[in-house]
Amino acid sequence: MDREAGILIRPLRESDLDSAARWAAEAGWTSETREEFEIFLARDPGSCLFAERDGRPAGICVATAYAGHGFIGELLVDRAFRGANVGPRLFDLAVGRLASSGCRTISLDAVPRAAPFYETRGFRPVDRSLRLLGRIEPRFAPGVRPLTAADMPAVRDIDLREFGADRSFFLAQRLARAPDLAWLKEDGGRIVGYLFGRRRAGFSWVGPWWSDPEDRHPEDLPAAFSAGAGGGPIQAGVLEANRRAVAIFDSLGFAVKPNTPRRMMRGPGPVLGGRPSLLAVGTASKG
Ligand SMILES: CC(C)(COP(=O)(O)OP(=O)(O)OC[C@H]1O[C@@H](n2cnc3c(N)ncnc32)[C@H](O)[C@@H]1OP(=O)(O)O)[C@@H](O)C(=O)NCCC(=O)NCCS
After folding, report:
1. Ligand 1 geometric centre to CA of 105 (Å)
2. Mutual orientation of helices 17-26 and 34-43 as an angle, nearest 10°?
3. What confidence tens digit (pLDDT) does each residue in 77-96 have?
4. For the chain, which end, N or C, has fewer CB atoms within 10 Å of the first or last residue's CB respectively?
5. In which residue ranges of the chain is pLDDT below 50?
């Protein structure tokens, strides 16, 4: 609990989820639905800072700590309470929480308008965090099959090595909530790629997506994903410095959506999740 001039900041509760989802919808964040906040709550309510102003729901900010590295996301303030220091207070507490849990490096995706604010807090732009939109013809290539719970230990090991932190809780949530969007590719008994997804209103989000740089047909996985997605629109988040990822989505005919966020960082690099083998992020707010 943290209180200052009528603003109370406390851990997220189940009863706050509707407010958080409404703010995200009002901000036009179509990928950030109630389900996202449910997942954060299930992992650790204490890392989801929720603000009340004079007893009314006022804002949220989520701080996700991995070993040594943290992400800040979902910074949202109710329109009725903007310009009253709720956002900066939430943000500063989230940064403090990550720093005190040992995160030397903190990443976030900033909408262009908010980037100068994060700069005042010591964050620097390191990349453009592209949002891509397209469609893929559904297709099943040899070696591609549904990813199941039995694959998770092997996938977790690869993800730990390639992403650089343990996001297995979030991967397991994706598999449980959208098993038909989780796919794996093998070559000679060896895993050469996996991806997970989430279904949203009017589109499906592909990611996290890992692909062995030696695999010459990485597009086989999103083609199978597209079958699970009913052939409809697909969105992905890609760091622009990842030239392999940009080239693959380009060849699939994906277009960059407007209002591209900046990936910003505080502390020493490298960018967590910045390896060329990671072709699409899970979410901007947690890597
Ligand atoms: C960004 C936001 C959380 C700020 O909360 P707040 O309590 O109103 O805080 P402030 O008014 O002190 O604004 C802090 C900074 O946010 C930025 N900001 C202000 N209004 C904003 C808006 N509508 N959208 C995005 N950023 C905004 C500005 O950089 C501002 O810094 P400045 O006052 O030095 O220009 C709030 O405007 C909001 O919820 N916006 C919509 C969601 C969003 O864009 N979140 C940030 C994602 S990176």
Report:
1. 22
2. 130
3. 999 999 999 999 999 999 99
4. N
5. none
At the second CATH level, the architecture of 2-103 is 3-Layer(aba) Sandwich (3.40)
280 lines ligand 1 (CB under 6 A): no
Q: Tell me the CA–centroid distance for residue 126 and ligand 1, in Å.
A: 20
Cα–Cα distance measured from residue 46 to residue 50, given in angstroms and rounded to the nearest whole number? 9
CATH superfamily for 132-280 is Gcn5-related N-acetyltransferase (GNAT) (3.40.630.30)
116 lines ligand 1 (CB under 6 A): yes
Predicted TM-score (pTM) of the model is 0.96
80 lines ligand 1 (CB under 6 A): no
Domain 2-103 shares a fold with domain 132-280:
yes
Expressed in angstroms and rounded, the spacing between residue 87 Cα and the centre of ligand 1 is: 7
Q: How far is the CA of 285 from the centre of ligand 1 (A)?
A: 16
